[in-house]
Design goal:
- Helix content is 75%, strand content 0%.
- The chain is mostly helical.
- The protein has one domain (2-29, 49-99).
- The termini are far apart.
- 0% of the residues are buried.
Length: 103
């Protein structure tokens, strides 16, 4: 297993180099412009990396007793508030047509 990881690391380095050379060669004009292009800032890839890390650690971060336990609780409270509001609005609209205008 260890040798497989080492081989993948070395092989992955070569693949990354080839991909980088291909991208730089094909987009040299955009990359050398003075004003640049926001698509090459790396922010999108960093966002993917951050999201992947957060999802990978979700079981540890959001369980009871941890710092971010209230995040899923807050989502559940928000969802329950929306459902309660929809039920209340539905019941009110049915009764307002029978009783009259409630305002």
């Amino acid at each position: 297993m260890f040798l497989t990881q080492c081989w993948g690391t070395v092989f992955g380095g070569f693949i990354s180099y080839v991909v980088m050379v291909s991208i730089v060669t094909s987009n040299a004009d955009v990359l050398t412009e003075g004003d640049g292009n926001a698509s090459w800032s790396g922010a999108t890839m960093q966002s993917y990396n951050t999201n992947a890390t957060a999802w990978a650690l979700a079981g540890y971060l959001y369980k009871a007793g941890q710092d971010y336990f209230m995040v899923p609780v807050g989502l559940a409270i928000g969802a329950a508030a929306v459902i309660a509001h929809r039920i209340f609005a539905h019941v009110r609209s049915r009764h307002s047509s029978v009783v009259g205008d409630l305002s």
